[in-house]
Design brief:
Elements lengths: L1 E4 L14 H9 L3 E5 L10 H7 L2 E3 L1 H7 L2 E3 L6 H4 L7 E4 L7 H9 L3 E4 L14 H18 L21 E5 L3 H12 L3 E6 L2 H10 L5 E4 L2 H10 L2 E4 L25 E4 L20 E4 L2 E4 L9 H22 L1 H7 L1 H6 E4 L2 E2 L2 H12 L1
Parallel strand pairs: 1-2, 1-4, 2-3, 4-5, 5-6, 7-8, 7-10, 8-9, 10-11, 11-13
Antiparallel strand pairs: 6-14, 12-13, 14-15
Helix pairs in contact: 1-2, 6-7, 10-11
Length: 364
C-alpha cells in the first residue's frame, strides 16, 4: 500500500503522524511511504531523517494524490477537503461528532475515515486516545495554574499554597484518563482536589489510589454546582467515545464561580463540556466570560510536540500496519478495535455514536 504522511496545517499544530522510525516499520512491511516535505519539522524531525529511513519526500498534492492511506494527527481542514478522494483511507483524529462539515465531506467523497479516538478494544479501552489524554490531563493543571495568575486575569492564587494559607482548589469533571492524570499533577503540587464521576466504582478506585488525599463526589447537578462555587481551577475531562461532550457547566454556573477562576476544557475537541467553550490556539489560548478565564486549546498536546508524537506513534502503528497489510475491510473484519475506529466508509456513517450525534444535530 502507498502510505502518505501529511504535514499538519492546523494553526500551531506541531505534531506529526509518523516519526522516521515508525515510518520505517511500514517500509519494512513492504509498503511505500510518501512524506510531505517539512511534515516533521514541528516535532524535530527533518526531511533528511525521513529520507534516511527510506521514505520518498514529495509535495502536498502528490502525497494526497497518490496515497492509498493518508496518516495525520488532526482532522483535515477546509483547504484539504478537495485533496481527499473516493476509496482513500484517512487515519487520524477526526472528532466528527462536533464537526458536521467534515463528516459530510468524508461521506460525499467516499473516504474511509478511521478515527484514532474511537478505536476501542474489547475491554472498552481507547488505546489511541489514551496517550494524548494522559498528556492533556497533565498539561491541564499546568495551564490552569498559570492562567490563575493575576497577570492573565486570574484570581492570583497559588494552587499549592504555602504554610499558613489555604491551598488552591481544583475540581475535575470526569475520572477517566484525562481526569486521573490531572489529579496526579494537582495532588503532586499540593492543591486541594475534588473529582466527580458517574461511576461509583471509578470513584472508589480513585479514592484508593490517591490514599484519601482527594475528595470524590458522584456527578450530579447539586455536587457539580457546589464544587464549581468553591473551585479555583475546573478541569473539563468528560468523554463519551465518539459522541459530543455533555454540557455539565452551563452559562448560569459562571455567575456562582469565583471571579478569576479558570476553566480548562479538555473536552473541547468533542464540543466541550462547558456551554461557553470555543476552541482557541496556543498563541491566544484564553478568553473571559462573566469574569471566568476559559482555556480551550483544541490541541493541547501539540504544545509538547516531541513527547506527544513519540507517545502517539508508539500506539498508532500497530493498527495502521494492520490496515496497510490487509486493507480496511479485512482489517475491520479481523479487529473489533478497527471496526470501532471506522467512522465513515463507502459514503455511510459506520460509528453509532457519531451517527447519533449527527441525528441529534438535525433534530436540534
Amino acid at each position: 500500500m502507498i502510505i502518505g504522511l501529511a504535514r499538519e496545517i492546523k494553526k500551531e499544530e506541531y505534531r506529526v503522524g509518523l516519526t522516521p522510525g515508525s515510518a520505517r516499520e511500514y517500509l519494512q512491511a513492504g509498503h511505500t511511504v510518501l512524506v510531505e516535505k517539512g511534515a516533521g519539522e514541528g516535532s524535530g524531525f527533518g526531511d533528511t531523517d525521513y529520507a534516511n529511513a527510506g521514505c520518498d519526500l514529495r509535495d502536498r498534492e502528490t502525497v494526497f494524490g497518490k496515497a492509498e492511506m493518508v496518516i495525520k494527527v488532526k482532522e483535515p481542514l477546509d483547504a484539504e477537503y478537495d485533496l481527499l478522494r473516493e476509496g482513500q483511507i484517512l487515519y487520524t483524529y477526526l472528532h466528527l461528532a462536533a464537526n458536521r462539515p467534515l463528516t459530510e465531506v468524508l461521506l460525499a467523497r467516499g473516504v474511509s475515515g478511521v478515527a484514532y479516538e474511537t478505536v476501542m478494544e474489547d475491554d472498552r479501552s481507547l488505546p489511541l486516545l489514551r496517550p494524548m489524554s494522559e498528556i492533556a490531563g497533565r498539561l491541564s493543571v499546568q495551564e490552569g495554574a498559570k492562567y490563575l495568575e493575576k497577570t492573565y486575569g486570574g484570581e492570583g492564587v497559588l494552587l499549592g499554597g504555602v504554610p499558613g494559607i489555604p491551598r488552591g482548589k481544583v475540581v475535575i469533571l470526569g475520572g477517566g484518563t484525562v481526569g486521573t492524570n490531572a489529579c496526579k499533577i494537582a495532588v503532586g503540587i499540593g492543591a486541594e482536589v475534588t473529582i466527580l464521576d458517574l461511576s461509583a466504582q471509578r470513584l472508589a478506585y480513585l479514592d484508593d489510589i490517591f490514599g484519601g488525599r482527594i475528595t470524590t463526589l458522584y456527578s450530579n447537578e447539586a455536587n457539580i454546582e457546589e464544587s464549581l462555587r468553591e473551585a479555583d481551577v475546573v478541569i473539563g475531562a468528560v468523554l463519551i467515545p465518539g459522541a459530543a461532550a455533555p454540557k455539565l457547566v452551563r452559562r448560569e454556573h459562571l455567575t456562582i464561580m469565583k471571579k478569576g477562576a479558570v476553566i480548562v476544557d479538555v473536552a473541547v475537541d468533542q464540543g466541550g463540556c462547558c456551554e461557553t467553550t470555543k476552541a482557541t490556539y496556543h498563541s491566544d489560548p484564553i478568553f473571559m466570560v462573566d469574569g471566568v478565564v476559559h482555556y480551550c486549546v483544541a490541541n493541547m498536546p501539540g504544545a509538547v510536540s516531541l513527547s506527544s508524537t513519540r507517545a502517539l506513534t508508539s500506539v498508532t502503528n500497530r493498527y495502521g500496519l494492520l490496515i496497510a497489510n490487509e486493507g480496511i475491510e479485512a482489517a475491520a473484519a479481523q479487529s473489533a478495535a478497527i471496526r470501532g475506529g471506522l467512522n465513515t466508509h463507502h459514503g455511510k456513517l459506520t460509528n453509532a455514536a457519531v451517527a447519533e450525534a449527527m441525528q441529534a444535530g438535525e433534530d436540534g
